[in-house]
Amino acid sequence: MKKQKQPAPNADTNSKPVLRLDWCTHEAAKYAVEKWHYSRSMSVGKQVFIGVWESGEFIGAVIFGRGANRHMAGEFGLTVIQCVELTRVAISQHATAVSRIVMIAIKKLVAQSPGLRLIVSYADPEHGHYGGIYQAMGWGYIGTSRPQSSIVGMHKRTATAKYGTTKGLPRTKSTWKHKYIMPLDAAMRAQIEPLRKPYPKRVRGVDSDTSANHAEEGGANPTRTLSSPEGNQ
Asked: Using the 8-state DSSP alphabet, how is residue 16 labeled?
């Protein structure tokens, strides 16, 4: 399939290769997650999908959503439209730093959702992640999530959405994740400042810079959807 090389209005022409982020379909995001994210599964709930291209080649997706934690927004005194989770960063081999890709994606999201005040994300130490990209972007680290068991390596809500039931599925031991938050206005920054804790350090010598990143394979243009950005689904 012929690759599209023309930069979109969001293209960054100051670096090589040319970086472009644009809204993409659920199909495109799902392809990226299943191919390049360690979980190989989409998160549940309402989401928005931002595709990533380098020099016209689809290399992944950044996904924001309400996440599996129903109480996430309330924890900070916010409504569900004021708080969102960065649920997946599924990126193939890339020349651009993942932290830069995520920051551009956040700017695009905020422009679309001006009422947004806080972004939450997690780094999973079970997969050797400690949150390097969040630290590079200056996110606040507020400790660890509450320990909970997972089903076939995923949250109960995700497993239910994928399999229809959790009955009979194997459970893993209780685990926790590093929790990071990014305030988007001055008042929220002041509110979360007392919650900040020292950043955790890299463990087991892993070089991966985010629990959401699984960058091991080259990015192809497998379908027209991936090479032609469309509105989010």
From this structure: S
Residue 207 tokens, joined: 């070089």
Q: Is the pTM of this model over 0.85?
A: no
Q: Are 145 and 122 in contact (CB under 8 A)?
A: yes
Residue 115 zone, left/alpha/beta (φ > 0; ψ -120 to 50; rest): alpha
pLDDT tens digit sequence for 170-213: 666 557 799 999 999 999 999 999 999 999 987 554 333 433 43
Instruction: Please report the pLDDT score of residue 95 as a whole number.
Output: 94
Residue 6 lies inside a defined structural domain of this protein:
no
Tokens at 36, concatenated:
């390049």
Q: Would 42 be classed as within a structural domain?
A: yes
Instruction: Give the residue numbers spanning the domain of 121.
Output: 19-227
Task: Give the number of domains in the chain.
Answer: 1
Please report whether residue 9 resides in a domain.
no
The three-point CA angle 135-141-143 to 5° equals: 140
